[in-house]
Amino acid sequence: MEKLFTPLKVGNITLNNRVVMAPMTRSRARKGDIADELTAEYYAQRASAGLIVTEGAQISVQGQGYLFTPGIYSKGQVKGWSLTTQAVHEKGGKIFLQLWHVGRISHTSLQNNGAAPVSSVAVKAENSHCYALDQNGNPGQVPVSMPQALTIDGIKAIINDYVVAAENAIEAGFDGVEIHAANGYLLEQFINGGLNTRNDEYGGESHSNRIRFTLEVTDAVSKAIGSDKTGIRLAPFGRLFDMHAFDGEEQTWLQLAEELNARSLAYVHLSDQQTLGQQAIPDGFIQKFRAVYQGILIIAGGFDKQLAEKYLQDGCADLIGFGRPYISNPDLVERMKNDWPLTEPDRATFYGGTEVGYTDYPFYSAQLDNQ
Q: Three-state DSSP class for 96?
């Protein structure tokens, strides 16, 4: 029996199927970094997914690394996002908001008063760019700025920012939140032993120290909104944004898996970066992770219908995340169910702009009706 299109209980909600729309930055927020009616239309079009995880929403000004991305720290942003949750729920969908702090993948032009971005240590991400203002004040890809190492007080303040953002997400009507601890952003900048050389309780050679910040964020968010409304995204062995291999890498991720297993979360979401031009998660690791983490597991990265079904049948995952196919196929569930062809996305319209390449991709059923 096929599993991909069967229901699944996640936390306190039941998903209509095992298909997850994975989080993808689209950079279409309006002034004030507010998600508007266009954002609501975009997600509502894709509401047949079992679960939508939104693009990352920065939890503070400090947490932003890209222009025109939506936030979740102001009243205007909460009101803006409520348009999306209402639209998705009216279509029978479920939606989590991804909570985002980019850490060092930012630029002084995005920070309050031109401050330096923050990270685990004061080490710049080499060959890494963000979307900010160039030296002439024009939007564009610019090299990231040199970060400053967070103080203990700074870490505590960010934990509070995550809590406020999570509470704001629930106020905006989201079914839950996903903590973004993947893809070379702030929390992974602490997890990664090749970068984090701090000599306090948040760093160094100790796996426990390097995962401490991530777990404290998870615990604080869970306490504020409920663990059954809290998910987290990880990228084991990820190399995006100047993340490097380090001694004890597998053990670090498996220790984190063990800690998360004890927390009764809505889910853990693993990001395989092979479709982003990085190395894949090593063979056999998913099975090791699965043996330690026994809650709901999502895996995303390069899946089609057949591979998704295989992972579900083999017990490697409970839900499968689809990213780029959702950009150009709002009815991806229906297309996969009926084996209808997929539309290829236009890369030129991935980031920024208008409804073009955002809400104007056709539903296949409409194309059939017009034939």
A: strand
Backbone angles phi, psi at 279, to 5 degrees: -70, 150
Place of tokens 């539903």: 363
Provide the 8-state DSSP code for 238: -
Return the amino acid letter for 1: M
State pLDDT tens for residues 106-155.
999 999 999 999 999 999 999 999 999 888 888 889 999 999 999 999 99
Q: Which of 237, 244, 245 is nearest to 126 (CA)?
A: 244
C-alpha to C-alpha distance for 296 and 325, rounded to whole angstroms: 23
**Residue 292 · residue 261 · CB < 8 Å:** yes
CA distance 238 to 192: 9
Query: Token digits for 313?
Result: 């049948």
Q: Which helix H or strand E contains 45, and what residues bound it?
A: helix 37-45
Active-site amino acid positions = 185
pLDDT digits (tens, 9 = 90+) for 15-46: 999 999 999 999 999 999 999 999 999 999 99
**What is the residue whose two structure tokens read 């920012």?**
161
**What does each C-alpha distance from 116 to 63, 74, 155 come to in angstroms?**
11, 22, 15
Calculate ∠ Cα 124-177-128, nearest 5°. 20
Task: Give the pair of three-digit tokens for residue 210.
Answer: 């390097």
Q: List pLDDT tens digits, range 284-301.
A: 999 999 999 999 999 999
